[in-house]
Design goal:
Strand 11 and strand 12 (182-187) form a beta hairpin. By secondary structure, this protein is mainly β. The chain has helices at residues 9-12, 45-56, 101-104, and strands at 2-3, 61-62, 65-70, 81-84, 87-90, 96-97, 123-125, 131-133, 142-145, 151-153, 169-174, 182-187, 196-200, 207-211, 230-238, 248-249.
Length: 250
Amino acid sequence: MHFSTSVLLSSVFSLSFALPSGLSRDLGNDAPVARPGRLNVTYESKAIFSQVSALYGDPVASQPFTIKAYNSESAIHLMNITASYNKFWVGNVTGNRCPPPAVTKDAPWAKSNECPAGNETALEVTGTGEAHLDVVVKGGQAIYLGPHAQLRFNNAGVPLPADAIRMEFALSVNPIPPSPEVSAFIYSGVGKASGYLACPVAPEGPWQVFADLASIQNSWVPSGDVSDCIGFDALAMNYTSPTPAAYEYV
C-alpha cells in the first residue's frame, strides 16, 4: 500500500500532527513532549511500523515526496530541504547531474534526450525503514545517517560506508478530514532522534541537516557549537510528477 503525503498548505500549518486513527501514542518514556513551534509527532518508527502494518497491512511504503523544515518560531520555517554534495540542506540549491544524451535516449519520458528537471529534492521510504532519493540512475541513491549524525546520501554505484545507519526512517501519517493526508519524515534509530537540526555553515545559512540526537557533539557541526543549530521537523508533501525527480543527485 502507498500512503499519500499530499497537503494543502493553507489548511495544515496551523495544525498539530496525530497518528492515523487507531494508532496509539502510548509509547512509555519515549512519548512525544511539547516543543514550541514544532509538530506534535512521535519519533518511535518501530512502533509506527508495527501499528500501521497491523491496521493497513505490509509493506508500509510511500509515494515520492518533498520535505520542508517546520519550526514556526525560526527563520527556516517552511524552507525546502535539498540534496547536494552528498548531504542535506536547508536554504541551499538541489545538486543534480544529467548524463550524455545517449544514456537516456530510450527513457520513456525523454523528449530530445532530456533528463528530469532535477531542481527539486524528492525521496521515498520503504516498508523496511529504508529511505532513498527519487532518481532514474541505475542502482538508486540511498539516504543514511553518517557517524556524526549527518543526514547523507550516496553516489549511485558507490557502497555505503561501513558505519552508515540505513534503517529506521518512516513517515508519521496524519489524516485531517477533509484535507489530504500530511506527514512527517522521521528518523528514530540509534540515538533516538527527536527531529532534525539545521546547523549553519554561515551566519545566514545555508544550514546542514543533522539528526537531533541527544549525543550530538559540538565538534560534529559546522560552527563548532550545537547551540547555533535550529531544531525542526521535516514536513512531507507529495511529489506528483509522473517521472522521477532527477537523473542523479550530486
